[in-house]
Amino acid sequence: MVTFRSTWGAMVHIDKVIRRLVEEEGKRRFVIYTNGLGGALVRECLRKYSVSPQYTIDNKENNGTTVLSIEQAKQRNNENTYFLICSWNSMFGTEIRRVIYEAFPEEQIIDIFREEDILPTEEEICDVLRHVEGYIK
């Protein structure tokens, strides 16, 4: 499980995963799973690629329209949809994942923070260095 010490580090990782999904699977629809910080960061990253999520799933707080419970989400047409697990919470990670894997087919689920990207690209390294350089006087 990935643990991020900074929001910026999470954004770099999210962008890498989302960019690949949008470029390779552009006609897919996306659903954000959990409406916390990770979900907000993924939503922001999707906007960068002019993609809006179909809806968000959150069992604790939902409004029945843009934020749904798992049960409400199962009632929707979820064909050609990726469910993006957007949580890196280590305390509840197993439970969060169990719920979504029981509700939807595994091939439709993308666990953003369990992606197996080993090395950053040259562009990502340069982005990090530019970011760090902004703090050096």
Describe the structure.
- The protein has about 140 residues and is an alpha/beta fold.
- It has one domain: Rossmann fold.
- Strands 3-2-1-4-5 form a 5-stranded parallel β-sheet, sandwiched between helices.
- Helix 1 crosses helix 2.
- Globally, the shape reads globular
Give the H and E element order: HEHEEHEHEH
Low-confidence stretches: 1-5
* SS-derived structural category: alpha/beta
Radius of gyration: 16 Å
The overall strand count is 5
Number of helices: 5
User: What is the total number of structural domains?
Assistant: 1
User: Can you give the mean pLDDT?
Assistant: 81
Characteristics of this structure?
disordered N terminus, 137 residues, globular, 5-stranded parallel sheet, 13% strand, 5 strands
